[in-house]
Amino acid sequence: MSTVTTNIPLLLLLQLLPLSVALLLFVMRKRIPKLATYAAPIAFLTMGGEALLTIVTYANFDSSTPALQLAENFDLTHPLDYHAAIDGMSLLFIILTTVLGMLVVLYGWQTLEADEHPRFMAAVLFTIATLISLFTTQNLLWFVLMSAIQLLPIGTLLISWSTSPEKEEAVARFIQFMSIGLLLLTIGTLMLGWNYAELHNGAWSFDINDLINTPVESTLHSILFFLLFYGFAIRIPLFPLHGWLPKIAEHGTVAIAPVFLLGLKTGIYGIIRFVLPILPDAVVQWAPYVVSFALVGIFYAALLAMVQVNLRRLIAFAVVSHTSIVIIGLFSLNSLAFQGTVMLSLNFGLAISGLLLMNGLIYYKTGTLLMSRLSGLFDNLPLIGVAFFISGLSIMGMPGTPGFDAAHLVMEAAMERYGALTTIAASLGNVVAAGFLLWAFQRTFLSNTNSEESTPVARATVRENSIAILIIAAIVLAEIFSESWLTLLDHSFDHLNVLYGGGHD
Fold it and tell me: pLDDT tens-digit profile of 7-54?
């Protein structure tokens, strides 16, 4: 893949802005007592600056070329040199990260005490900086390193702001799964670097262009595929590697919001960016088996979601079910599949975050997320209810939501690759998923159950309503500009179409 360089290090600035403010808030939180009062506004202004940098990056991006753009190269410690560049896919993930980051900052500003703001905002901004680094790096070892560093702020959030009665068990399970995933990624990455060194006089490299252009022995293809794929699949999480998510989901929104931010996006992105172009033969060989597991995961998670009594656990199983649909689309391996997968990932990232934040506001207002104690919330929380409903519709891929076009592309790609049976099964799974989301909305917001256990609730504040309005606006705007997003992806997968023969007019 060719690259286009720039004189302005926009990608570096996108990483350094949240990182520098995060370090400032963390280091100075005890030295400047009044910092607690201003930490949230500072973090929000930082995300505003991040949004401006994202707009400038978008304005300097040329969607008509297949080359990686805005390339930046700095010699650090070889082979861990800094090499950043973006294509349309990277840019879309950066845009989503910026939007969701602003929402999480605003949510924490509303729901946390002022003395908690410096540490929380520092952790969120640190997470955002590492996410941007993941979406811009062209070095696989750098990707693995940032993934490991990312666990520091995530661990801080899980330990410090948990509302789960089983905090230690949930954190332990999260660390276990993430550590296994990182171990698999590290081993696979080092094996690729060793393979490159064997063919280049002992010189190691983890640059994506070098790895793509270095042949891999057939005996190593499947081994490397399983190491890298399962390393990323744990982060998504894909069935049956999802065991950490339901436990973590009970921690509370401020604790787990960045977990949801990093999961689906980085896992799918890593597979597309590194696994598909480096190991095409193994991908083709094992794609039917991956799709089979994904089909099982759709129904397994959807059925478990329908029996949940806690809204947070319900959302966790919704993530597992719908990410399985994304995987089916991705491993359909043609241009429709690649475009649909990225769009569906972005849609799920936005919609699931919307559901998560609305659940958080419900808990903040009522002190519970047990559906037996929730009913008739629409009377006092109408905008939160609308945001919950629209987010649910978007996940289901209903017409008028950004998920509709994406789901259409994915199903068309699956039909072309695997036939009608697989496509119908995936569609039925989505119908089941629609059932539990609609039921949860009806039970929580519309039901007028006069149970003695029901919790009274006060009307939403202006700031709470503003979070709901921003979620609604983000989903509506994503649908209005869906053609623009697809345009950004026009040439992002040209190299994959060549490998897999998936080009379309």
Answer: 678 999 999 999 999 999 888 777 777 777 888 899 999 999 999 999
Tokens of 121: 């905002």
Exposed e or buried b for every residue in 306-343, given b needs 16+ CB within 10 A?
bebebbbbbbbbbbbbbbbbbbbbbbbbbbbbbbbbbb
Q: For residue 263, is it left (φ>0), alpha (ψ between -120 and 50) or beta? A: alpha
Report long-range pairs for 424-431 (Cβ below 8 Å, ≥24 apart): 425/295, 425/298, 426/295, 426/298, 426/325, 426/328, 429/295, 429/298, 429/299, 429/302, 429/321, 429/324, 429/325, 430/298, 430/322, 430/325, 430/396, 430/397
Distance CA 356, CA 254 (A): 10
pLDDT in tens, 412-445: 878 888 777 777 777 777 677 667 777 788 888 8
Q: Which CA distances in Å does 37 have to 20, 25, 33, 41, 183?
A: 19, 12, 8, 8, 41
Model pLDDT, residue 505: 44
* pTM (2 d.p.): 0.89
Cα-based angle 314, 469, 339 (whole degrees, multiple of 5): 65
pLDDT of 88 > 80? The answer is: yes
Q: Give the least confident one: 151-155, 333-337, 397-401.
A: 397-401
**Which DSSP string corresponds to 49-91?**
HHHHHHHHHHHT--TT--SEEEEEEEEEETTEEEEEEE-HHHH
Cis amide linkage into residue 277, ω under 30° from 0: no
- CA dist., res. 400 & res. 213, Å (int): 42
Alpha carbons 165 and 376: distance in angstroms, whole number = 27
